[in-house]
Amino acid sequence: MAIKKVWIEDGCTSCGLCEGICPDVFVVEDIAIVKEGVNFQDFEDEIKDAADSCPVEVIKYSE
Ligand code: SF4
Fold first, then answer.
1. On the chain, which terminus has fewer CB atoms closer than 10 Å, C or N?
2. How far apart are CA 48 and CA 60, in angstroms?
């Protein structure tokens, strides 16, 4: 299975954790955003780690 889509639901607290774990995919400005043009399959472990680590569980992905 390969990650094809990554998004962030409402409720991000801008803690910065996801960017710390996977700066190639996540950028935290006012809130976290997913970078455009990223091949998510290159960062699957990091995306899953960020989603598991997000304190408010708003990072979602679909395979
Ligand atoms: S880890 Fe979660 S709460 Fe923290 S900046 Fe990323 S999306 Fe927002």
1. N
2. 9
DSSP, collapsed to helix, strand or coil, labels residue 45 as helix
Cα(1) to centroid(ligand 1), Å: 24
Domain that residue 12 falls in: 5-62
Confidence of residue 15 (pLDDT cuts 50, 70, 90): very high
Which residue shows structure tokens 């290159």?
42
The phi and psi torsions of 36 (rounded to 5 degrees) equal -90, 155
pTM equals: 0.95
Average pLDDT, the chain: 97
Domain count, the chain: 1
- Report the CATH number that the domain containing residue 28 is assigned in CATH: 3.30.70.20
